[in-house]
Amino acid sequence: MISLEQIRYFLEIVRCGSLNKAADHLYISQPSLSKQLQHLEKELSCTLLIRRHNGIAPTSQGTLLYEQMSGVLDEFDRTIDGVRHFKETHTLHIGGLGNLITYFLPRYMENLKAGGHNNVTIDTCFSNRELVTGIENGKLDVALLSNAEPQPNIAIIPLMTEPLYAVFPISHPLYQKSNINFLDIVMQERLVLYKDPCTIRDSIRKQCHRMKVTPNIIMELDLTESLLSYVSRGDGITLLPAIVATAIQMPSIAVRKINRIPIYREISVAMKKENITAYLPMFSESL
């Protein structure tokens, strides 16, 4: 039976024009190389090389074998090298609430690339329930949640807790205060808030329920940009999580941390339990 090694040895002998030189290049002994050549010639039932005064040259059959197999062996080597260095490309499907996709996820994009996830799709969802369903049915690999409830079939890992900030126009009296009280805000101010379903809205609602007060909500909107537009006009004030509030770059708007009776929200990442080892390290900076 003809082996790839025998073909490789033959090609090297032709290239070197000498058994001794070929043996040195192949790191085998000259007798072993001669023996392999004899086996190859026996299998092909022909003489492949002839000795001349200036070295070894291929016969007509040897020339044909050399010309045909040189390209084949080169292609074989490229294929083997490609297989060894092949990395399966997997599109990572990430979902999240709008403000988490916009303000939280970007800090981890380098981690995604470092983990070999160069193909990423990102979907914005409006509720934790929608994101959890996406993980359960396999449409999402990873989801970023806010104030998530435990789930029986998927892993939900807390990443960080952040406070809510009061956001208002610089013309508002709150601009002159160093201490912001949540109770004063919900009892005295007109509020422009995210529309339900919204986990930030839930946090505000629960705190108001505990304090037995009813907030004066004058407007409900889907987008952060819309909230800020109405706040800058002086139509009301809003409450936003820290990563959103501290990213605001509008000269007409002020941002203040709520010092008294603060409210917090917890950011978590969700995934199937069997994927924790693969995906959780991408968010390790938060843990």
TrEMBL record:
PROSITE patterns: HTH_LYSR. Residues 2-59 form the HTH lysR-type domain. GO terms for molecular function: DNA binding; DNA-binding transcription factor activity. InterPro entries: LysR_HTH_N, LysR_subst-bd, WH-like_DNA-bd_sf, WH_DNA-bd_sf. The keyword Transcription regulation applies. The keyword Transcription applies. GO terms for cellular component: protein-DNA complex. Keywords: DNA-binding, Transcription, Transcription regulation. Belongs to the LysR transcriptional regulatory family. This is HTH lysR-type domain-containing protein. It comes from Megasphaera cerevisiae DSM 20462.
